[in-house]
Amino acid sequence: MIKRSAILALLIYGLSTMACRPPVYAMGSLPPHQPRYIRVAVIRDAPSLVLSLRSPFQVKTMHTDELLLEGKRLKKARVSPVTNGIKIDKTVFKIYGLKIETKKEGKIYLNNRRFRGNIEIIKSPDQNLLVVNEIDVEDYLYGVLRTEMPYYWPLEALKTQAVCARTFALYQNSINSKKDYDLTNDVYSQVYGGRSSEKYWTNRAVNKTFGEVLTYQGKIFPTYFHSTCGGHTENVTQVWGGKLVPLGGVKDPFCKRSSHYRWKNTIELSEIQHRLSAAGYKIGKISAITTDQRNDSGRVQEVTIKSTKGTIKIPANKFRHLVGINLVKSTNFTVEIIRSKVRFSGLGWGHGVGLCQWGAYFMARKGYNYKQILEYYYPASKIENIYSDKDAD
């Protein structure tokens, strides 16, 4: 039989450990809060799609929420645009846009991928479908973090990414109110995989930074990020124009051990000619490619190309996109023509603006916390919480 003194000791120990535990939301669930909805285009220009609803659902009109249909479940129904509306399975809704809600969270499946929140299905003028996921920004981040940063990375690096991704999403939401969506689900926005892409460890990073965003002079700003900066992050002015102190560029000694710090790639000279011609440039057989001017971060500003049809100059960032962003990994590169091939050698991967993800990884490994990492890559910025104290209780 256990003695009373032992039972009392166990109770005291249990109470003391409970007092030391972090809030429940830091371990796996969010506290009650007023949702901040964002709209993510998860399917674009689709001639059709497969929709499954695995809980009671309602189909409504967009904007006015007029109930059109409700049911218990929907098994793999084909959705397609028709002349007078949108067809789901055998039912035609004579309207250009539908809103679908389920009673249980995360029970919407689009082409076998699971999503939280609600969806809107919109028929475009060219008879294709646009699907927009309307979702609370915190739930959205669950589907972003694992796709933008390896889930097994240090927690402080993941928390850094969570704050950046939340800020970027809400910034896009603030400037796209007149459009059908705020963000896309690809590398040109933030890669978002829905409920199917979630992991416990990345969800935990979202919860531990609940509601936190970066601001400058009281306003959120586009917290761009990239894989590897190659020794110096880029000034946003050089890529997208504008001037913003937190995006002015900083020296970065942390990402030198990234596997993308140095790179080399080769492409056929004729393929570059083909890609530039397809983009509308008048170009013949190429005889020379040179890099002109480098800015303070070491990146090329302009590329000069000589061919049998004359000489053209292309901004380096545009040239990179035309040739291929995974081939010319950054604008910090040199180029060499070797017979019929072109060899590119360079530093870093990505546009270089804002957070260097591999730099954040190595900073976290060295013991820096996420606030210190954010302060380093976004100087003069401030961490604020978008929810009131009441919401965060």
Describe this protein with a few key phrases.
7-stranded mixed β-sheet; alpha+beta; globular; 393 residues; disordered N terminus; 24 strands; 11 helices; 32% strand; 3 domains
Major beta sheet summary: 7 strands, mixed
The share of residues in helices is 25-40%
Strand order of the largest sheet: 4-3-8-11-12-1-13
N- to C-terminal distance: 42 Å
How many distinct domains? 3
What is the 3D shape?
Answer: globular
The pLDDT mean sits at 91
- CA-atom Rg in angstroms: 25 Å
Query: How large is the share of residues in beta strands?
Result: 25-35%
Count of runs of 4 or more consecutive helical residues: 11
The count of strands amounts to 24
Low-confidence stretches: 1-27
Secondary structural class: alpha+beta
